[in-house]
Design a protein that fits this description.
The chain has about 300 residues and is α/β, with parallel strands linked by helices. Helices cover about 40% and strands about 20% of the residues.
């Protein structure tokens, strides 16, 4: 099979259309279509079902796509190893983590890391769904749960604790709760049902000290970052990870005797990147930053 045609086919399968693949490859739609048609002619099988709503892989196309995807992943890994054979850490480094942790904690430290390692090309992918590290959708991830996959290495970075927080302007207007029962008379912001919460029992604030079963929240948000922003705006009281308060410095810790769930944060990367200088540089940097937070 012609390598260039295979590369174009893989891009089309990833993008789902000739137009988007052409944009990714800097080729015209007609040039992309010709390359795919040429590959189909050489194999004497159709690789895509073409219809008005877009493209869908045929059974033979699925077989070729899975193989091509594996080949390109291995080529990317070979490139990583070649780059890491040089003395100074350099090359692309894609980091995946959650929207909340990435937006509030990680990105605020990216400048320092880039200044330390100017030859590393950092990209951060924020998503509350996990990317597949084994298929090189990212090089490394910072995750909120341990993994069971045998081909991934993980190291615990820190333990994150949930506490109760409010904005100063909210407390000035509504008063500060002194005991858990006082939460019955306050606006509460909790995690919504439209997505699976990152930890179990995340909405403990609705029940702790409640005199009449469970409280009714003022707002439900299916994002920890969304809860943080709502609390920060002065809408009400919410349960948030302790790192958020340390980072922004404008939230008040209320009911300090109450501690919510705790969750461990892990640094995760593929086994084959064990000796990557870029991975080691990021790991050591994160460990130092977390230690500085707790001094």
């Amino acid at each position: 099979m012609d390598w260039d045609k295979l590369r174009v086919f893989h891009a089309v399968a990833e993008a789902g259309s000739f137009t988007h693949a052409g944009e990714d490859l800097n080729l015209s739609q007609s040039a992309v279509s010709r390359q795919v048609s040429g590959l189909e002619d050489s194999l004497q099988v159709p690789l895509f079902h073409r219809h008005a709503r877009g493209l869908k892989l045929t059974e033979q196309g699925e077989i070729l796509y899975r193989t091509a995807h594996d080949v390109f992943a291995k080529l990317a890994m070979a490139e990583v190893r070649i780059i890491d054979s040089k003395e100074r850490p350099q090359g692309p480094l894609k980091i995946n983590t959650t929207v909340a942790f990435g937006s509030i904690w990680l990105t605020s430290r990216t400048k320092k890391f880039v200044n330390l390692y100017p030859d590393i090309e950092v990209s951060v992918v924020l998503a509350d769904t996990e990317l597949d590290l084994a298929m090189r959708e990212a090089d490394v991830a910072i995750r909120l749960a341990p993994l069971s996959q045998p081909d991934l290495i993980q190291r615990q970075l820190m333990t994150m604790h949930y506490h109760v927080y409010a904005a100063p302007e909210y407390l000035k207007e509504r008063g500060t709760p002194e005991i858990p029962q006082d939460l019955d008379d306050h606006n509460l912001i909790v995690y919504g049902e439209d997505a699976r919460p990152p930890i179990a029992n995340l909405n403990w604030l609705l029940k702790i000290g409640a005199e009449y079963g469970s409280r009714r929240p003022t707002l439900k948000v299916n994002s920890i970052y969304g809860i943080f922003r709502a609390v920060q705006s002065g809408l009400g009281i919410g349960a948030l990870p302790d790192y958020m308060s340390r980072e922004v410095g404008n939230l008040v810790h209320v009911l300090p005797e109450i501690r919510g769930p705790s969750i461990d944060i892990f640094f995760v990367y593929p086994e084959e990147l064990r000796n990557s200088q870029r991975i080691c540089a990021l790991r050591d940097f994160l460990i130092d930053e977390i230690a500085a937070d707790h001094r």
